[in-house]
Fold these 3 entries.
Entry 1:
Amino acid sequence: MSLPSWLKVKAPNMDKLAEMESTLRKGLLNTVCESALCPNLGECFSRKTATFLIMGNTCTRSCSFCAVPGGQPEKLDEEEPARLAEAVRNLDLDYVVITSVTRDDLPDGGAEHFAATIKAIRHLNKNIPVEVLIPDFQGSKEALLTVTEAVPAVINHNLETVLRLYSKVRLGADYYRSLELLRLAKIIKPQLLIKSGLMVGLGETKSEIMKAIIDLHLVGCDLLTIGQYLAPSSEHEPVARYYTPEEFAAIQKKASSLGFKKVISGPLVRSSYHAKEAYCS
């Protein structure tokens, strides 16, 4: 299946791209932009934005849609939060997004490391908003509390796909567990913005998409992103279909009518794409 024209991206500013990559390498830092082969990497790096990937680059799960390698993760790097905070300052960022690989090998799923990273960033960069894109922590309320008590600006957890496709593309995850995590986050810290994201193009129906969107609204989700799934390689789940920009606009209109604070829907939209703009809108 050939890539449609609306999914082709412009070449990035190479000087800014090189500067961003240099800062990340000096800090021994990972980004999900690189690990997940995001099509927006060039644009975001050129704008000096990135989604930092903490706790290594190896995931304990192997979802069939994701390019992040699965396997046995490395030991946690206790110096990582301080290095990341320093990189945020050096890059003069004014909005930060932090995510992680899933760490089912850790008793708290890495929640304390998330909290330490938020605190380290705020120590050097006082009032900067920090958005965290968290794993499901295997449904642990205690782990979620650890993260929310560090008071990020946005708690993000991606539902990713519709209920019917979970057993096929989200191994180790559970649709209702993810919804419950988002519901609890809103209850624990009502002032926090709750965010989630969906991919389309995996074989779902439009009615299934709307059911997932309604489910997210019902648990208190404030911000929603919807984008086209792109297979990272021939070994991953194949693309069932490409949605047109007009179809994304129609989905956005329907979702917005439910009362979300912000819905961003488009072929190249990803969970952290233009995250600052979503937060500030």
Entry 2:
Amino acid sequence: MENGPRPVEDLWRRTLSQIPTLYGRLVYLSSLRNANSGHYEHHGLKLVFGEEAADRALRDSHDRVFRQWLTLNLEQQKADLDLYLSSLPTKRKVLAENWLRLSPYRSLSPVSASGPERNLFLCDLEILLTLLRNEYADGPRA
């Protein structure tokens, strides 16, 4: 294992690089965090690298992707989010309306995020969803 890939490299090469959007990566990584324990759980990484190394790789990757998202301007975030939404089977207008009402994105921030970073993330998403909802209401109902 000394000459093999490290857990974070393996995660990026095999999984995260296959997810085309930063938002999709945030969704994926946050889904691996156990809401009760706060630990990240990935069966494959755990088998190969051990529970602690897998948790650390997932935690670090979640933090990295979150910070990458925050460096995007609103136009770039909108394009990324729109691409993510286009991969889902529900109409985008319905998605935007439901997400504004139910706020499923509130759990996407990593534990390491500061209060201001979380607030920025949430404010940006609410702005983007409002823009997208209005855009979808005026245009084709994709």
Entry 3:
Amino acid sequence: MRIAPLAESFADKVLAGERLSVADALALYHAPLEELGALANARRQQIKAAAYGGRGNEIVTYIIDRNINYTNICNVYCKFCAFYRTERDAEGYVITREELDQKLQELSDIGGVQVLLQGGHHPALGIDWYLSMLNHIRECFPKIAIHGFSPPEFQHFAEVFKMPLREVISKFKEAGLRSIPGGGGEILVDRVRNQIAPRKCNTDQWLEVMDVAHSLGLTSSATMMFGHVETVEDRIEHLHRLREQQARSGGFTAFICWTFQPENTVLKAQTVGATEYLRTLAIARLFLDNFDNFQSSWVTQGPKIGQISLEYGANDFGSVMMEENVVSSAGAHYALQKEEIQTLIREAGYEPRLRDTRYRLLD
């Protein structure tokens, strides 16, 4: 089936800046992949044309950061996670200050500009432990922006610390937190969340953290992990909730989606491949009309699909990511150095540029 009649109607709507409805997105989801990608790429070019001094269409950004998991001890037992350990497990850990400093120094030495701090829902760590870590990073490594603690972590903190959510996030910001990653989003449909992570925060609680953080001046990313028990309708509902939240609070800097990685996990599902990843990315670019930046997920898809994603709506190649433990525990083992990322971007026909957490160019 040719997309021409469908494409013409949707292209006119999308490129005129009109909003796609949920029904539009569901219809467009079944369009031929290449032509869906072409429409997403046209929208990308339209959005980025005015960025970076009028040269946005030529630029693909990346960042140098490190993902530091401060603990793998967690009491929510997500079925899709191969990283967590319980307090009784011999492999459970809490990072020491010496280990933290070594990792941050290595990041600083290669020109790193951001650290991504995420960890399990440790039932015993108190607020002083977290604030001390943040203050230490801010004082000893002032050039490294702290991007940390996903919405489920903050909901966990509020419960464990017995403090209002706003007060917790405010204290973390005062101690040096600059932005919040969109982790723990999975699929923002409670029917799905109750199947794959019943002990983790629900959809409204995830969005509440972002709403409070944005109101306090923090930015964040938004994510989606798909390709497990959800339906296409669930994916669109997830995007719809994100678009509504962005309209209210306006603090999302980027959208990142990736496919479920099944190795070593309790959750057993028929996984999806690169075709479904590219289709979902393209739909997200078209539907999330109030998001500027879309990140390529080469960590799960591999470098070549990472390149191709730049023609399906992505304008950012993500991170050099010196360290990644969560997705790799579930079977994704791709890793790239700065020079490799730059080469991949150039080979795709774009100019690689280093960015910061807020997508400002640094080089």
